């Protein structure tokens, strides 16, 4: 995925940040267990958010080692089915993103994506076999996006809706109908924000490479940069989705994850939005170390 959906760690309590890191490590561990060692490279913040929002709170905290931290054990959420679901979704989304990159690139420019797709192929087949409905939804929506690309569609909402529906589908396995409807709304607006932010972030590159980006046809970017009035319009639509996501989250019982999820939607996403629009996002995107405090092995 993209990494836009992350918390502002400065506004989290130390314990909350440790819990978030434990969920992130739990997703990484679920990827290794379900899809193989190489699949760990697709672990991301966006699907960590999705796992926390899907969680029913059955996870437990354990201390685990990993290749990234071989000398010191790290707190890790284990035994939560939501992390397994998010792991499968992560691999499926990563594989289809690579597939799209291969389709959009010339042979030599797309060599790295071709190699990554090949290495991820086995993990993708495993995940797709467990989640055929989600895999089919991703395929269908990306075909719709390809059609919009072919016609150079200038309607941002049509393109954003295709990607938003992919994340909304992630709630389909939730048995409780009321909870499922709320999750669908939450994931839909998160997906919509991710698509628009990615379009803004990639605009200059897409203009240079002559790739499809709905912002190129919806607005009139100058040298890959949007005018202030165009940016203002995008801020309005992003704010509407952010508020809709916050309203959905307020209706959702997410247990111990509640303050972390609220931080992500109400503080983290607006902060990332400002960084993307100011052109500082790629410079500021660094992996941060967690504060030095350990869990005591209690259940979440």
Number of helices: 12
Largest sheet: 2 strands, antiparallel
The helix fraction, in percent, is: 55-70%
Which CATH class applies here?
Answer: Mainly Alpha
Structural class: mainly alpha
In the CATH hierarchy, the architecture is Orthogonal Bundle
Overall strand count: 2
> H/E series, N to C?
HHEEHHHHHHHHHH
Rounded Rg: 19 Å
Q: What's the mean pLDDT score?
A: 89
Spatial shape = globular
Approximately what portion of the residues adopt beta-strand conformation?
5-15%
Count of discrete domains:
1
User: Which residue ranges are poorly predicted, with pLDDT under 50 across at least 5 consecutive positions?
Assistant: 287-300
**Strand order in space, largest sheet:** 1-2
CATH fold-level assignment = Farnesyl Diphosphate Synthase
Query: What is the CATH homology-level superfamily?
Result: Farnesyl Diphosphate Synthase
Compute the separation of the termini in Å: 26 Å
Model description:
- By secondary structure, this protein is mainly alpha-helical.
- The chain has one domain: Farnesyl Diphosphate Synthase (Orthogonal Bundle), CATH 1.10.600.
- The chain is built from twelve helices and two strands; from the N terminus they run ααββαααααααααα.
- It has helices at 14-35, 45-54, 81-104, 111-130, 132-150, 156-168, 177-201, 203-209, 214-218, 228-250, 258-278, 281-284, and strands at 60-66, 69-78.
- It has a two-stranded antiparallel sheet with strand order 1-2.
- A hairpin with a 2-residue loop joins strand 1 (60-66) and strand 2 (69-78).
- Helix 6 crosses helix 7 (177-201), helix 7 (177-201) runs antiparallel to helix 10 (228-250) and helix 10 runs antiparallel to helix 11.
- The longest helix is centred in the middle third of the chain and has 25 residues, at 177-201.
- Mean pLDDT is 89; it is low at 287-300.
């Amino acid at each position: 995925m993209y990494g836009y959906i992350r918390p502002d760690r400065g506004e989290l309590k130390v314990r909350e940040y440790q819990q978030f890191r434990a969920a992130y490590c739990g997703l990484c561990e679920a990827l290794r267990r379900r899809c193989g060692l190489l699949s760990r490279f697709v672990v991301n913040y966006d699907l960590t958010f999705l796992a926390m929002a899907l969680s029913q709170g059955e996870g437990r905290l354990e201390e685990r080692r990993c290749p990234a931290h071989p000398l010191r054990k790290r707190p890790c959420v284990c035994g939560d089915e939501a992390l397994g679901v998010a792991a499968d979704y992560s691999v499926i989304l990563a594989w289809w993103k690579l597939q799209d990159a291969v389709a959009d690139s010339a042979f030599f420019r797309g060599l790295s994506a071709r190699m990554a797709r090949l290495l991820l192929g086995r993990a993708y087949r495993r995940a797709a076999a467990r989640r055929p409905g989600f895999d089919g939804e991703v395929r269908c929506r990306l075909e719709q996006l390809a059609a919009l690309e072919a016609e150079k569609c200038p309607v941002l909402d049509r393109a954003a809706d295709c990607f938003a529906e992919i994340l909304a589908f992630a709630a389909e396995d939730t048995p409780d109908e009321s909870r499922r409807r709320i999750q669908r709304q939450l994931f839909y607006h998160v997906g919509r924000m991710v698509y628009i932010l990615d379009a803004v972030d990639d605009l200059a590159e897409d203009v240079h490479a002559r790739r499809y980006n709905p912002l190129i046809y919806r607005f009139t970017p100058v040298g890959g940069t949007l005018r202030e009035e165009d940016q203002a319009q995008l801020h309005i639509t992003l704010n509407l989705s952010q508020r809709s996501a916050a309203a959905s989250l307020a209706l959702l019982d997410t247990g111990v994850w509640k303050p972390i999820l609220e931080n992500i939607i109400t503080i983290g996403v607006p902060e990332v939005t400002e960084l993307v629009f100011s052109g500082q996002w790629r410079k500021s995107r660094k992996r941060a170390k967690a504060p030095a405090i350990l869990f005591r092995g209690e259940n979440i």
